[in-house]
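Lab notebook, bench 4. The sequencing result for the construct came back, and we need a structural model before the next group meeting so we can plan mutations. Quick request posted to the team channel:

Model the 3D structure of this chain.
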Amino acid sequence: MSSLNDSARTSPLGIFARSFRRYYIGQTFSYAGDGLRLIAIPLLVYRLTGSALSVGLTYALEFGPFALFGRSAMRTSS
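Done. Here's the predicted structure in token form:
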């Protein structure tokens, strides 16, 4: 067990560190949840309305702000 702790202290990337593993696992679940949300919300809208136009509007409302303000926000942040 001490060899794992020693390698965590000497690893330049810190990939054996407990905090990094927790971060990596948390990010994995977060990205998986985002992917499921991207599919689930339009499916729910289609199931409730039965309209492909409503699904298109849902996507437009979801990604519209990124398309409109994403580049300007990147310019002002750097």
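The chain has a mean pLDDT of 81.
Will bring this to the meeting.
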